[in-house]
């Protein structure tokens, strides 16, 4: 029978902690900075041009494991009432039940389900997007993570840019009008560009 003294147990505990510390230190929690992040989009209008807009209010938490990015995760919430295309009348229509119905669905959410590495530091984030009461899988193509920097206030920051495309009809956004010359008023595909700045949780 092996007997462990209190000193021996303490020594083993300390060794185990020191061995695990580098792994634990590699993972960090980051908060999305709403003041320096946005979700941009564009969609075809009248079959001749693209209308661009932005959701200006986004929040969430990103857990980053630099030793193994596949163990990282993202949860984000976008305020649908913050949509801005630069035209008040159009924004009001997009907020109406014809499109986003922001009174009923004031937010959309993204929750990651996995991550795969790409080339040159890029990677793909797989997840579920809930929009207009419908949840569908989407894939974000992320260019890569910026290095950590310290701002003048001492806060550690990091950024990332990503893109994806969705079919709005997959989320129940089906409103449209046929054009006399053929085609439709609003395209089905919505191209999304994401700019995120994060602050390291303390």
From TrEMBL:
UniProt key word Signal: yes
UniProt KW keywords: Signal
Signal peptide bounds: 1-27
All residue ranges annotated as the Lipid/polyisoprenoid-binding YceI-like domain in the record: 29-199
Domain of life: Bacteria
Pfam families found in the cross-reference section: YceI (PF04264)
Keyword Iron-sulfur listed: no
PANTHER family assigned: PROTEIN YCEI (PTHR34406)
Protein name according to UniProt: YceI family protein
């Amino acid at each position: 029978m092996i007997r462990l003294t209190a000193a021996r147990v303490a020594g083993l505990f300390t060794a185990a902690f020191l061995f695990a510390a580098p792994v634990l230190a590699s993972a960090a929690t980051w908060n999305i900075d709403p003041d320096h992040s946005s979700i941009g989009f564009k969609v075809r209008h009248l079959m001749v041009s693209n209308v661009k807009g932005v959701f200006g209010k986004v929040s969430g938490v990103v857990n980053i494991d630099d030793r193994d990015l596949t163990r990282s995760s993202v949860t984000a919430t976008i305020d649908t009432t913050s949509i801005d295309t630069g035209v008040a009348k159009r924004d009001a229509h997009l907020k109406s039940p014809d499109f986003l119905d922001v009174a009923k669905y004031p937010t959309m959410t993204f929750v990651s389900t996995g991550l795969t590495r790409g080339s040159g530091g890029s990677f793909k984030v797989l997840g579920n997007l809930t929009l207009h009461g419908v949840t569908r899988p989407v894939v974000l193509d992320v260019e890569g993570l910026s290095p950590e920097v310290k701002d003048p206030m001492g806060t550690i920051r990091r950024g990332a840019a990503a893109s994806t495309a969705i079919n709005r009809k997959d989320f129940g956004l089906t409103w449209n009008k046929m054009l006399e010359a053929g085609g439709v008023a609003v395209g089905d595909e919505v191209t999304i560009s994401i700019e995120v700045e994060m602050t390291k949780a303390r």
